[in-house]
Specification:
single chain; about 260 residues; two-stranded antiparallel ribbon; 7 helices
Length: about 260
């Protein structure tokens, strides 16, 4: 409970700082951190950070919660960094930070910069095609992410490349008016391979990504034929926690490893 309160206090201070027009963080270098497995890689996980993060930072968070990556001896783990762009909505107020695409203030039906999303999609697609060229098929690749990284994972997994092994999103949702829903409808009406299963995590104490937004998206995707695994915690906040990550990687194991 103390850890939860401390986390909430930290992000509250960041929100206050940003709303006063001060920058909470400086942009990170656009680097990709790759963890090679002990054996020949037969699967890959691409994990996307949240707003203001980086590949190396999210790698540390993931590893500190799930333990040493040696437990995945044939899985390549890839942690890319998004390009730094201005994020106009509250509480960021124009900060330049690393994010997969910028969006307006978070509401259920938010709008976003489609050009930035396209650029990020190309960056992710290059990483995926590198894995395919190295002998890892699309069905053995998982794209997952936290917060805005999870948003990008869902948009990409169902709106761009629809043949990955699985998709994961922690404290994330897509806009209720997203064209992804139309893309899924078109896919389901054609004789195409099944769309990848989806893992979602949400917390009742998340004041940035409201639980009903995630639940609404999850139900809508289930109705459209997506296999959705949704872990909801009453004590969960917007921050990554161990349960959310451990369950995500168990889902990944069952899906692609």
């Amino acid at each position: 409970m103390l850890q939860t309160c401390t986390s909430m206090l930290t992000i509250l201070m960041c929100v206050i700082t940003c709303s006063l027009g001060l920058y909470c963080c400086n942009p990170n270098e656009q680097v990709t951190e790759i963890v090679e497995p002990a054996q020949k890689a037969t699967s890959a996980v691409i994990f996307l950070h949240g707003a203001g993060g980086s590949g190396p930072q999210i790698r540390e968070v993931v590893e500190s919660n799930i333990g040493n990556f040696s437990q995945f001896p044939t899985t390549r783990l890839i942690f890319p960094t998004a390009k730094a762009v201005p994020l106009p909505g509250f509480p960021w107020n124009g900060q330049i930070l690393n994010i997969w695409f910028s969006f307006t203030t978070l509401v259920e039906n938010y709008s976003f910069n489609s050009d930035e999303m396209e650029n990020s999609a190309k960056q992710i697609e290059r990483l995926i095609e590198e894995q395919v060229a190295a002998g890892i098929p699309h069905r053995n690749i998982c794209l997952a992410g936290y917060s805005s990284g999870g948003m990008m994972s869902i948009y990409f997994g169902y709106g761009y490349v629809k043949k990955l092994g699985c998709i994961g999103a922690i404290s994330s949702y897509i806009s209720s008016s997203s064209n992804v829903y139309n893309e899924i409808s078109i896919q389901e009406n054609n004789t195409c391979p099944r769309l990848p299963p989806l893992y979602l995590y949400g917390g009742a104490l998340d004041f940035l990504t409201f639980p009903n937004w995630i639940t609404g998206m999850a139900n809508r995707l289930k109705d459209m034929g997506i296999q959705v695994t949704y872990l909801f915690q009453w004590t969960g906040t917007h921050y990554i926690n161990k349960d959310g990550l451990v369950n995500l990687f168990q889902f990944i194991k069952e899906s692609i490893i």
